[in-house]
Design goal:
8-stranded parallel barrel, alpha/beta, 11% strand, 21 helices, homodimer
């Protein structure tokens, strides 16, 4: 009990007042689309008036932000973590009539890492856990496709504009119709310097049809499992805003369900566009259930992690059957994308032998061990068609894992890495054949001069499927600051066309991230993504810089804070010098 | 007294034990040159042995680091802040026989911001200051040229290799003769990926003759005032290691002499290659004297700041005479480079009227006000030949200030900025005519896609003189994190050829940096500079990454910490997860 109290004192996060306090002068607003139920959320920041030289005042418009924080920052939606979020997409999914609820896979004690129901029950009593996943009030019956693929890719290829597509079009435009940037008047709020899109083809305005066409071409994905109807649609692709992912997850020495949900909310509060749950150890089914029911952003996982738990942590005992079972289990829960390391081929493993740091991807390492133990080809590769045939029934997107990514500058762009990338291209075509959405994971540790080659080869070998990189870290020498070593690489590859940047926290290489590490990582990556959007010339993104600089120039300190990526940090650093409230207004 | 004690408790920095504690397993070593007195300092980190699979052990070599911390980290040199550092360059300067001590400019109360000696004395008694600059035991008689320029540029043009040039050659090579990188064996400590030098021409090994030739060509400068003999020579240029500068300085609401010296030591401990003293307000002569006598790195200033103090803070009252007097005052003290905003021309000022943020450079703003008040051309421009004729007598380098640099993304690369840059090119030629070393200051706030244009135009208009940029910040939206928004731009422009990166701290736009802000800024910029060196392919720089990654791969945690850019941070973040000492060895 003492430990519980301590935790809740330390973490008063799931509290509306606390959440709202981080973003002052803000309110959540919605722009409606033409499809019923399409209500696209934004955050709007109110500003003070400008004091003119003649003593008059000139009002400043609200500034609108892309908002990932979901209903947590909407006072109109009750905050009941135990109940889950509203299932906003359910009517759209039902209306399509191509999926149906069914009696899903029977839950098993091993899903949470227990040998029997008895073990599970005892452990839960011991830990004071409030029932297993089965008894969660959150659970609903899973859905799956009746026959054809229920993926956004399948719809796009048939020429259909789904409500999800309309949602992301409005979202990318910040809900505005007029998106033509001003090119000459540097004082205008809508002024924008010309971008250098480096091959991206970004229209002045994102239309639902453009979204559809980009998905149909495989250049973008809209991760949206039909069993995660709580998610607010978002899109990943070179011709859209650059997105960021935050990893959370417990571990053997880990944290509780509540803490993981708090980390989720914390990450999306600061701006994570998707969240990966990398939990291992006990209770991962239950943790995932809570995360999904609580998440307005797409959730990704690495199913091999749970499969490994089910075979007692021994990679050589993994089998297609256990893995397949895990895919279904997680697809039914609503995971939006799976990292699948199907490109780690048996013949590539020896290529890593003379590396500086061997194989650093956990998934890559597990599969390399399996391949060597059995001297057989990676079962994810040999069963890839079956994987696709499962995922298409739920619209789980595939994130093709780079199990052989370099873990040191010395290993950058080596043959192991590039051989795997070519195989990922081959797998991309198979996924597309099954109407499964796919993106490609990328490294890792790459010095600045070799980043462009990564982007170029990915576009070429993987047919312009969206790229999703970890950093990259541009040097190995600064543990404790890898959010910075990697934000440098992330900004560059984001500019070059990478669709999503997986964050790296200051704790990378040192330990599991705590809350402040998550914040530092998300903020560093929001900086990288926004710098990349500016560089690409995505229409309208410079308005944020312009509004903040105007507030700065006019000494409207409160506005400068409110418009900041992290208002609380900006204000607190300013307060160290000048704490008086009177110093904050113009 | 209470305040004093509090300060010394807060700041036990000038203490050998404290200083050494930040860099474990380290010792300062020297490599001697052929010129007498050329003893080039490095830091060497000892490593544990690697445990081999067969139970044996394989020793790991010491790893050598470029070291800016000066005698502060050498236990063989007594730490007596009141006495100043050893004047290691004095014998070289004397041996050249082209300069002589003289009775310098008479000190005046106004130098420290006082109207009379009486005022000054009273204030010092009130503050408990230990005597004015005049009574400092540190003071020595200033030197100046007998007749010809005593600049490293003048020597280089005459074909002379000075001891300073030999010093920097050894320093850039880390004191090693064998600098040929390994290109195929990724496991080798000397393995290095090919760089993309983007026009830089970096030899496999830096020779003293190469240093001389680069200085003679104006492509590099070696800032080394003959009145700052305590400095350890270093070089700035596109074909050398990328350097970083840290700004310190008191202000009206400011800090004491001791605090500024502590900030200096703190900045060079983390790796600042030069330090700019931007003090304003009272006591700036005295603070500068202490900083110079305590600094093993070149010190830069912006003399117009002190000149403005001398005229009561009223820009329109500035005159060439006051400014000239300040130049001599500071040159005699030993300042190594002056930022001179001679490119802010009267006709450029109106170009800033329709900017988002007008003129944000303090120097630029002062001179713009002067120009408008007098409706005359900038007196730094009209007297530029005279400025050069003064500086050549001391070897003060010129850093041509970018007074019209953009202060917002919206103002990047605008006509005001680029017009000034062209004028800086014209002034570069004048400086060179007088054998004065010169570098060019650059922005500022620049989005990623416009950074290359800055570098290209600087090289073209300013004849490849070294570029020295503030960041650039790649977005305006993250006050509180501008060390990150700008490290991204700094890494990129460093790669593209910028010689020195002026750091930005998290407090930029919010207040004066405290000690932890200085550390955060320096570390972020060391990351940017090292990432740039890797990208350019500077020979040998990847060894650091390789050694650290090997330690990481072998779970030699103590070595991983010791090899880190910030060992203390790496260890403390790791300790949050696993505090046991036993967990730190392989």
């Amino acid at each position: 009990m003492a430990a519980n109290r301590q935790r809740s004192e330390r973490s008063p996060l799931l509290n509306r007042e606390t959440l709202l306090s981080y973003f002052p002068q803000s309110q959540r607003v919605y722009v409606c689309g033409t499809n019923p139920g399409v209500r696209v959320p934004f955050r709007e920041v109110r500003q003070e008036a400008t004091r003119l030289a003649d003593g008059g005042r000139e009002s400043n418009p609200n500034v609108r932000f892309y908002d990932t924080s979901g209903p947590y920052t909407d006072p109109a939606v009750p905050l009941e973590p135990g109940k889950g979020l509203p299932a906003i997409r359910l009517p759209w999914i039902e209306a399509r009539g191509d999926s149906e609820p069914y009696f899903g896979r029977a839950a098993q004690p091993i899903d949470d890492g227990y040998l029997s129901w008895n073990h599970k029950e005892k452990a839960e009593k011991r830990n004071g856990a409030s029932g297993g996943a089965l008894s969660l009030p959150l659970s609903r019956q899973p859905r799956r496709a009746k026959r054809d693929a229920v993926t956004q890719l399948a719809y796009a290829r048939r020429g259909i504009v789904t409500p999800e597509m309309e949602f992301v079009a409005i979202r990318e435009n910040l809900g505005r119709e007029d998106r033509v940037p001003e090119r000459s008047d540097r004082e205008a709020l809508s002024f924008q310097l010309p971008g250098a899109p480096l091959g991206a083809r970004i229209p002045e305005r994102i239309t639902p049809e453009f979204v559809r066409d980009e998905i149909a071409a495989g250049r973008a994905i809209l991760p949206a499992n039909i069993n995660h109807p709580e998610s607010e649609p978002m899109i990943l692709g070179r011709n859209f805003r650059v997105k960021i992912n935050a990893n959370i997850g417990n571990s053997a020495i880990g944290s509780s369900v509540e803490e993981e949900v708090e980390k989720l909310v914390w990450a999306i509060l600061w701006g994570a566009d998707t969240v990966m749950d990398l939990s291992t150890g006990k209770d991962i089914h239950r943790i995932r259930e809570w995360i999904l029911r609580s998440s307005p952003v797409p959730i990704g996982t690495v199913p091999i992690y749970q499969a490994l738990e089910k075979v007692g942590g021994r990679p050589e005992e993994l089998s297609w059957e256990v893995y397949r079972d895990t895919l279904i289990e997680q697809a039914e829960q609503g995971v939006d994308y799976f990292t699948i390391h199907a490109g780690v081929l048996l013949r590539y493993v020896p290529l890593t032998a003379r590396r500086r740091c061997g194989i650093v991807s956990r998934g890559g390492s597990i599969l390399a061990k399996w391949c060597l133990a059995h001297h057989e080809e990676n079962f994810l590769y040999t069963h890839f068609e079956e994987i696709c045939s499962i995922l298409r029934a739920y619209d789980v997107s595939i994130s093709l894992g780079d199990g052989l990514r370099p873990g040191a500058i010395a290993d950058a762009n080596d043959e192991a890495q590039l051989a795997e990338l070519r195989t990922l291209g081959e797998l991309t075509q198979i996924a597309w054949k099954h109407d499964v959405q796919v993106m490609i994971e990328g490294p890792g540790h790459i010095p600045l001069q070799l980043i462009q080659e990564n982007m170029d080869l990915e576009l070429r070998h993987c047919w312009e499927a969206p790229f999703y990189t970890l950093g990259p870290l541009t040097t190995d020498v600064a543990p404790g600051y890898d959010h910075i070593t990697s934000a440098i690489g992330a900004a560059l590859i984001g500019w070059q066309g990478c669709a999503m940047l997986c964050y790296v926290t200051p704790k990378e290489h040192l330990g599991l991230p705590a809350r402040e590490d998550v914040r530092a990582g998300v903020v560093a990556y929001k900086i990288a993504a926004h710098a990349a959007d500016l560089a690409k010339g995505f229409p309208g993104v410079q308005e944020w810089d312009n509004a903040l600089s105007k507030a700065r120039f006019e000494f409207r300190w409160n506005d400068q804070f409110a418009l900041s990526l992290d208002p609380t940090m900006a204000r607190s650093l300013h307060d160290e010098a000048l704490p008086q409230e009177a110093a904050k207004s113009a």
